[in-house]
Amino acid sequence: MSAETVVVVVHYGEVETTARCLEGLTGQGADLSVILSSNGSPEEARALSDRAAALWSPDAVRLVAGGDDPAQDMGSFSVTVVDNGGNPGFAAGCNVGIREALKRPATRYVWLLNNDARPAPGALQALVREAGGHPRALLGATVLDAESGDRLQLAGGAEYHPATTRIRPQHAGAALQDVPDLSQPRLDYVYGASLFAPATLYREVGLLDEAFFLFYEELDLCRRARAAGYGLRWCRECVVVHEVSATVGRKGRGTARQARLAAFHEARSTILFTRKHHPLLLPMALAARTAGKPAALLARGEWGLVGPSLAGLVEGLWAKR
Questions:
Q1: What is the CATH number of domain 5-242?
Q2: Is the dihedral of CA 316, 311, 95, 155 positive or negative?
């Protein structure tokens, strides 16, 4: 199958979470293919292949083993499930799919979609329409919080303040019914739960930086994209329902181990990003993180995350780039 849009989904966590994402993709039209990059166990990859076969057809789904050979031919199936043999990180998992998408001559767009996100009917069509008017833009979605149902988690993406490392999601909390009247927001990055871009972007600026094991990979990509002349836009008609942090275990979801892992990598990636893009602000960012983040965690009663967060800061300082 040759498709104009290749959707890249990284699996990690519960199989049922990823299966709901796949179900949402079945209603997006025929001109797409899915590369499901599995950072879980081999058993999870096989289970997801079976679920995809039930949603599409057995002949439309292929399960392959990932590897270090970039020339490996995965074929052009409706759904290709890649067993990565472990968890190399979110950015690395995405890159498995992006590399395969770029090998296919028909690929015009690559849609990075979180496995805990489910696109509403018509989401892909809305993205393609928006991309037609803005061919050099990365597009974000109207992301709804699954718990509220009709309230925005954000519109397209967020602002990022490097000195304080604070993130300000745009139009957060707005009602879905008010979306047509909301302004096009200023974006420092497109939210990685749904990031739609022309394939040419990755050919021009490169893939995701795998130094970011988890978090900040989309902020880094958007920074590089803007430097190359790409814009960042909110596609308001593309609606995606997001089970906030269902995969990484934050906000009371997932296991305690997942939550500690997320706290560690969020802190680590914060420092790595600051070192890469704002080295002069590193002392301010460190001060904000060393004092502010533990205080916020303690105020929320998340005592067990203080240690991993501080450890992540130290690792981010010493990690090689």
A1: 3.90.550.10
A2: negative
